[in-house]
Amino acid sequence: MLKIDGLGKTYKAGDKALSDVSFEIPKGQVLGLIGPSGAGKSTLIRCINRLVQPTTGKVWLNDLNITGLRTGELRRARRQIGMIFQEYALVERLTVMENVLSGRLGYVGFWRSFLRKFPAADIANAYRLLDRVGLMQHADKRADALSGGQRQRVGIARALSQNPELLLVDEPTASLDPKTSRQIMRLIVEICRERGLPAIINIHDVVLAQQFSDRIIGLQAGRVVFDGPPSELSEDALTLIYGAEDWTAMRKGADEDAAAEAEERAEAQKMMGAL
Ligand SMILES: Nc1ncnc2c1ncn2[C@@H]1O[C@H](COP(=O)(O)OP(=O)(O)OP(=O)(O)O)[C@@H](O)[C@H]1O
Fold it and tell me: Among 3.60.10.10, 3.40.50.300, 3.10.520.10, 3.40.50.150, what is the CATH number of 2-244?
């Protein structure tokens, strides 16, 4: 379980990025974090893993107060937080398997990791994870030989190899096409269910967030202005989060995407019928 209590962040430059943010995420819940550019989504995620130092408030992961940890303790605590990134953050010249094993670096001693000598149990687990994300046959390929969707699957397997207690996911689909985006979101959600993992997904795409999250939090100027199930994310709530002008523009984009998708589907059906 993740508990955030009165979190605030004011950057040195004077920007107030977060104000009094509080919520809890139970095990297995997938939370979609939405809001306009500059609302504080990245700052919130970074305060949780302490890449950014919060100005006020506390972050608890199970019984551990992350905000109170010193450097060494923080390093150990970060093992429990799996990160998935927009640009995958893979080591391109290493194999898929080596990238997945790199998630174990926080656990394996320096020399073993330097020589890339991982324990047999870690290797067996990495194969299981590759199988789960559908990449078993690609284990020995270099990461730079994969498609975007496949790379993100490697990113997911690497995060899971840490055996995390929490997943922080930053724009996982921003570099992917709509169909691959849905596959990746579905995979993340299924995995969170299987493992009882709480997750926060910072996501620009409101439609995807609604489709796949158990719960949505909407940030506006550093404050939580919506917290509820996707079914309650009304036009009014979206206008509150994004402002009337931006939300109208976003909705138009989403409608165009949906229309393009329907057209693609109809084309495919026509082709199938002709065969
Ligand atoms: N390192 C920093 N120093 C000073 N101000 C910052 C820093 N990082 C972010 N900010 C400010 O904090 C506010 C929140 O930014 P943040 O990046 O968290 O928003 P965001 O919702 O993730 O935006 P986006 O969707 O564009 O990534 C903004 O006003 C931003 O200018």
Answer: 3.40.50.300
